[in-house]
Amino acid sequence: MRRFASLAFVLLMLPASVLAATVQIQIKGMNFHPAAVSVAPGTTVVWTNADAFGHTATSDTRLWDSGMLQPGQTFSHTFDKPGSYPYHCAVHPFMTGTVTVK
To answer: What's the domain count of the chain?
Structure first.
C-alpha cells in the first residue's frame, strides 16, 4: 500500500506533458482510420501509414505536413490549442480527416 501511495504522489507531481495522451490514426485502404478524432489539449496524434503506398497527413491550413510517409512510417503532431484542425493527404486529396481539440 505504501508503494502505491508513493507512486501516486510521483505521478501527481509530473508535468502534464509527461502524462499527455497519444491518439493513433491508421492510414489504410485510402482512408484515415478514424477520420475524425476529438482530443484534449496536449494530445499527440500519431499517423501510421499501413497502406501499400505513400501518403501524407497535411493540415488544410498549413500548420503541419508529414511529408511523404512510406508504408510503415509514422508522423506525429501535438495539439495544444482548442479548435478544429482539418487535414488531407496531399497525394490523394479525397482522403480527409479532422482533429478536434477541446
So the answer is: 1
Contacts for 73 with CB less than 8 Å, ≥ 6 apart? 48, 49
Asked whether residue 15 is assigned to any structural domain, the reply reads no
With beta carbons less than 8 A apart as the criterion, state whether 30 and 91 touch: no
The CATH number assigned to the domain holding 31 equals 2.60.40.420
Record the pTM.
Answer: 0.81
Cell numbers for 8: 501516486
Q: Please give the DSSP secondary-structure letter assigned to residue 79.
A: E
Give the residue numbers spanning the domain of 76: 20-101
What whole-number distance in Å separates Cα of residue 30 and Cα of residue 8? 43
pLDDT band for 10, please (50, 70, 90 cuts): very low
